[in-house]
TrEMBL record, chain A:
A GO molecular-function descriptor: haptoglobin binding
Protein name in UniProt: Hemoglobin subunit alpha-D
GO biological process: hydrogen peroxide catabolic process
Keywords: Heme, Iron, Metal-binding, Oxygen transport, Transport
Span of domain Globin: 1-141
Family: Belongs to the globin family.
Keyword Heme: yes
Lineage, top ranks: Eukaryota, Metazoa, Chordata, Craniata, Vertebrata
One GO CC term, this protein: hemoglobin complex
Naturally occurring in which organism (per UniProt): Esox lucius
Automatic annotation (TrEMBL), chain B:
Lineage: Eukaryota, Metazoa, Chordata, Craniata, Vertebrata
Keywords per UniProt: Heme, Iron, Metal-binding, Oxygen transport, Transport
InterPro entries registered for this protein in UniProt: Globin, Globin-like_sf, Globin/Proto, Hemoglobin_b, Hemoglobin_oxygen_transport
Name used for this protein in its record: Globin domain-containing protein
Designated gene of the protein: HBE1
GO molecular function, one term: organic acid binding
Originating organism: Esox lucius (Northern pike)
Pfam families cross-referenced by the UniProt entry: Globin
């Protein structure tokens, strides 16, 4: 359950990340693949070296999708519909991995924002990303 | 026995040598109570945990945060036998405190995020992986004596 203040906070944070979406995204992916090596199995078709052109592009896509949703959290089901279909029918990424990426996104935000990423922001972000992951995985079965 | 690379050993010693236990302990533990409020169930006698501000100002929370970090220090100094080092603490958390071991993982995640925010870009992906491996061993050892 997200309060009005939490929704605003989340939108503000992601708004700030939009100009550096490829940095944030590629760093989060790199953190995820380093700490949770099983996640690399989904990237055998890409150059997963840190900050490779493909990682920057892929990371940017992910961050922009999240930022888009953060602008109107109550409409997530609608905004994410095409991505739900993609993940369920084409990518088939085990949804457990969505937790790993969410965690690494949060670590990346903490490393970039320092003490600005305080417990209240962290709690809000954790709730938002959990909901995002749950909605993303909705069409799996 | 857990195999540690030289990089992993050095990273763990380095991080715990650098962080201020008096700052990081309370920050991580307080954060856990805010981000995962159900963890408050074990701290009914801590007084005011009503909101984030109250939790962060609570002296019992701060004290317990320092206790936890000092407990972690034992593992830092005994990386080659964390399981034995924590056997007694594991029994304590199971038999006396009745703490769901999943909570250790939640606290470990909060500690990771606090260390990331203190270290900024020095908390690279490789450093994070080493730190999380260490915490995973700690978490596993603390849950080991549950039955």
């Amino acid at each position: 359950m997200l309060s009005k203040e939490e929704k605003e906070l989340i939108a503000q944070i992601w708004e700030k990340m939009i100009p550096i979406a490829s940095e944030i995204g590629s760093e989060s992916l790199h953190r995820m693949m380093t700490t949770f090596p099983g996640t690399k199995t989904y990237f055998s078709h890409l150059d997963i070296r840190p900050r490779s052109r493909q990682m920057l592009s892929h990371g940017k896509k992910i961050v922009l999708a999240i930022a888009e949703c953060s602008k109107d959290i109550s409409s997530m089901m609608v905004t994410l519909a095409p991505l739900q279909t993609l993940h369920a029918y084409k990518l088939k990424i085990d949804p457990y991995n969505l937790k790993y990426l969410s965690h690494c996104l949060i670590v990346t935000l903490a490393a970039h924002m320092g003490s600005d990423f305080d417990p209240v922001a962290h709690a809000a972000m954790d709730k938002f990303l959990s909901a995002f992951a749950a909605v993303l995985a909705e069409k799996y079965r | 026995m857990v195999q540690w690379t030289d990089f992993e050993r050095a990273t763990i010693q380095n991080i715990f040598g650098k962080i201020d236990y008096e700052d990081v302990g309370p920050a991580a533990f307080g954060r856990c109570l805010v981000v995962y409020p159900w963890t408050q169930r074990y701290f009914g006698n801590f007084g005011n945990l009503y909101n984030a501000a109250a939790i962060q100002a609570n002296p019992m929370v701060a004290a317990h945060g320092k206790t936890v970090l000092r407990g972690l220090d034992k593992a830092v100094k005994n990386m080659d036998d964390i399981k034995a080092t924590y056997a007694e603490l594991s029994v304590l958390h199971s038999e006396k405190l009745h703490v769901d071991p999943d909570n250790f993982r939640l606290l470990a995640d909060c500690l990771t995020i606090v260390v990331a925010s203190r270290m900024g870009s020095d908390f690279t992906a490789d450093v994070q992986a080493a730190f999380q491996k260490f915490l995973a061993v700690v978490v596993s050892s603390l849950g080991r004596q549950y039955h």
